[in-house]
Design a protein that fits this description.
By secondary structure, this protein is of the alpha+beta class. Helices cover 34% and strands 30% of the residues. The two termini are 19 Å apart.
Length: 206
């Protein structure tokens, strides 16, 4: 992962934290989300899976091959974003959050900003992590950060900034590369991030 990419990622993570979910509302909204999930969880999860399945088909057509983005009951998808550039570089990002609030835009409208197209969402929610796929190989910025996870070479780095603590991870597959951005907190630890990476790499086809 290049230095320029790392700077862009860190900026988007910290801006995203401020824009999407003000911290002063965390406690009350988490409580409300728990009550909603308690009574309506099956219907909500079914609707989300149906919607994101349709998006995954669209992404398959966009990239020309199947991509892997898991479904997590504990971390609902609050946005799916596609970045395109004139030189045919494409990146699709699934944003997983700790809770899912109201839609920022009407569900039947899509946000388009330059090279960014929102394929699903956006919904309010406190981000937990993001998984991105790029249609190009990712070059490790430092070989010292590369380790083996379930047979995959993964670049893994923990970063500490004024805005918080983060884990960045990247791995290559046949057609391109996956990139992970984890936002660490009291309710989302490094162990949680490692469990997601372990599960992802076990299910991933090379």
């Amino acid at each position: 992962v290049t230095k320029k990419d790392r700077e862009r990622i860190m900026e988007s993570l910290t801006v995203g934290k401020k824009r999407i979910f003000p911290l002063k509302y965390v406690t009350s909204l988490v409580a409300v989300a728990f009550i909603i999930l308690l009574f309506f969880s099956p219907a909500i999860l079914q609707d989300e899976e149906t919607a994101t399945s349709a998006v995954k088909k669209e992404i398959h057509e966009e990239f020309g091959h199947q991509l892997f983005f898991p479904h997590y009951n504990k971390y609902p998808v609050t946005s799916v974003e596609l970045h395109s550039s004139p030189n045919d570089k494409k990146t699709v990002t699934f944003i997983y959050s700790k809770n899912k609030g109201d839609a920022v835009l009407p569900v039947n409208e899509r946000e388009v900003q330059g090279d960014l197209k929102v394929l699903y969402g956006r919904y309010e929610g406190e981000q937990a992590f993001r998984i991105s796929y790029m249609n190009r190989k990712l070059v490790p910025s430092n070989e010292e950060y590369v380790k083996q996870i379930n047979g995959h070479e993964v670049e893994y780095e923990r970063l500490e900034r004024e805005e918080g603590q983060f884990i960045l991870a990247a791995l290559n597959v046949k057609e391109g590369g996956y990139f992970f951005e984890f936002i660490l907190a009291k309710d989302f630890t490094q162990e949680d991030a490692d469990q997601i990476l372990d599960s992802f790499t076990k299910q991933l086809e090379n």
